[in-house]
Design a protein that fits this description.
single chain, about 190 residues, mainly alpha, about 0% strand
């Protein structure tokens, strides 16, 4: 049981790290901040290391404790959760790389800054709730994550209807730059 508790702690740490990564990536995107973008990109190694540690501990739990029933489901579930959290970190890296694209300018036009700020805030809330669910095993927090995901989906759809529609004036390059990171936000929420 101790090993399973340690795995849960690592998963919660991964959720927090993925949340911090997306938060920083959003700030880098909005502010054309190269150093913050670089920190997100290099910080992904930590999430990858946590993933490897979770996998190692899950295999140890399976081999040494021979879990059955609920414990076996926790081990298998932990492997899947760690994979999803690792992917969330990768999606934050995609956003951070987009931040570097138009440096020294922001790749997000003024017309969409509020949308991306809201996406970033939602992702932060999603990661925090995900960490809380993992830590406390309180499944009553799950609907909050689902609600945030629906809001991210709404903003994602709204973005793709706003950009090509009049009175969009920033131009084609700005439209492409603004739509490239949006799927990363949408997928991040789905993984949570």
């Amino acid at each position: 049981v101790v090993l399973l508790d340690e795995i849960s702690e690592l998963l919660a740490e991964m959720a927090v790290a993925a949340g911090a990564a997306m938060n920083q990536a959003t700030q880098a995107l909005l502010n054309a901040d190269l150093s913050t973008a670089a920190a997100v990109i290099s910080g992904d190694d930590h999430i990858d290391e946590l993933t490897s540690e979770v996998e190692r501990r899950c295999y140890d739990a399976a081999a040494l404790q021979q879990p059955v029933a609920t414990d076996l489901r926790l081990v298998i579930g932990s492997l899947r959760i760690s994979s999803a959290l690792e992917r969330m970190g990768d999606l934050a890296v995609h956003v951070a790389k987009q931040a570097r694209l138009r440096y020294p300018n922001s790749s997000i036009p003024n017309e969409l800054r509020a949308t991306f700020a809201e996406l970033g805030a939602l992702e932060d809330a999603i990661a925090a709730k995900t960490a809380a669910v993992i830590s406390t095993k309180d499944l009553s927090l799950g609907p909050d994550i689902e609600k945030y995901d629906e809001e991210v989906d709404r903003l994602h759809r709204e973005l793709f209807t706003t950009v090509p529609s009049p009175p969009w004036s920033p131009g084609v390059a700005a439209a492409i730059d603004a739509t490239l990171p949006s799927p990363s936000y949408e997928r991040y929420a789905d993984h949570a």
